[in-house]
Amino acid sequence: MKLLRQVGFWLLVAGIMAISLFPLYYATVTSLRPASKLFEPAWLPTSLTAANYAAVFNELPFARNLLNSVLVAGSVVAIAMAAGVTAAYALARVRFRGRGLLLAAILAVSMFPQVAILSGMFELISALGLYNRLAGLALTYTVFTLPFTVWILIAFLREFPQELEEAALIDGAGAWQTLTQVFLPPMRPAMATTALLAFIAAWNEFLFALTFTLTNEQRTVPVAIALMTGASRHELPWGNIMAASVIVTVPLIALVLLLQRRIIAGMAAGALKG
Questions:
Q1: Which of 98, 144, 176, 248 yields a CA-CA distance of 20 to 30 A from 63?
Q2: Can you tell me the distance from the alpha carbon of 122 to that of 117, in angstroms, rounded to the nearest whole number?
Q3: Are 205 and 264 in contact (CB under 8 A)?
Q4: 119 with 130: CB under 8 angstroms?
Q5: d(Cα 27, Cα 228) in Å, to the nearest integer?
Q6: What does pTM read for this prediction?
């Protein structure tokens, strides 16, 4: 009976992994096939070619699009973490009138769908002269990234004992020293998890990037992939699209592998504290 349970468990794990990894496998295999064999029913490519990857960079400013995504997502993470840590500390550890209302307002902002604030953000971006600029995208992404960043960090900061702050105050530390020297070191796993989530959200965002950019040189990779066209209006270069999708996915996989220890530590800390 125990053996059957173990076999069933590992079969379930294998099934989940197969379902999760199949889209990436299919995209990778398709990206390595020549155009004449893209739609052949084969699990493995009979011939491999890097022509699709070369075409992505030769026919489009895809390297510029990648750089745009890195700059925008990196800026969003930096702004969201800097503002999120300080805001979360104030909301979680400092008592003041209206704190509950402010927390509810932050949560309410994160509940709105992107399309609901699209027109308002367009007017704001145009008024600031940031249309078709990377700074406009960074500002827009920060609007929907900062609320969940603040909420995640608040959940961790609330669990620290009050004695930590009292000991810091006795030693003569101010609010900034308490935050940076007492709370930040044990918060690094949580910050790594939050930063990764913010980066993924900004990296994959499509609607704002499509609306607030006009030229290929200012577009991010999701929009660049969506606007790929073939030789005719109704023909899509599936090999190029799959190659671009694999290229875009690699940085996210690399980040997860690089930060996996901190991510697991942050999730475990949150589970134990909860």
A1: 144
A2: 8
A3: no
A4: no
A5: 16
A6: 0.83
| Phi-psi region at 216: left, alpha or beta (left = phi > 0; alpha = psi -120 to 50) | alpha
Provide the H-helix boundaries in 112-206. Answer: 118-127, 134-157, 162-170, 175-177, 184-204
Contact in structure between 107 and 98 (CB atoms under 8 Å): no
* Superfamily per CATH, domain 60-273: MetI-like (1.10.3720.10)
Closest of 198, 70, 80 to residue 139, by C-alpha: 80
Tokens of 188: 């690094």
Q: What is the mean pLDDT of residues 141-160?
A: 86
- Which residue ranges does the chain devote to CATH 1.10.3720.10? 60-273
Residue type, 196: L
| CA end-to-end span of the chain | 34
104-109: list long-range contacts, CB under 8 Å, 24+ apart. Answer: 106/147, 106/150, 106/151, 107/147, 107/151, 109/143, 109/144, 109/147
Q: What per-residue confidence (pLDDT) applies to 271?
A: 43
> Considering the chain, what is the average pLDDT of its residues?
83
Q: Which one has a higher pLDDT value, 47 or 85?
A: 85
Q: Is 62 exposed, middle or buried (0-12, 13-18, 19+ CB in 10 A)?
A: buried
**Residue 77 tokens, joined:** 């993470």
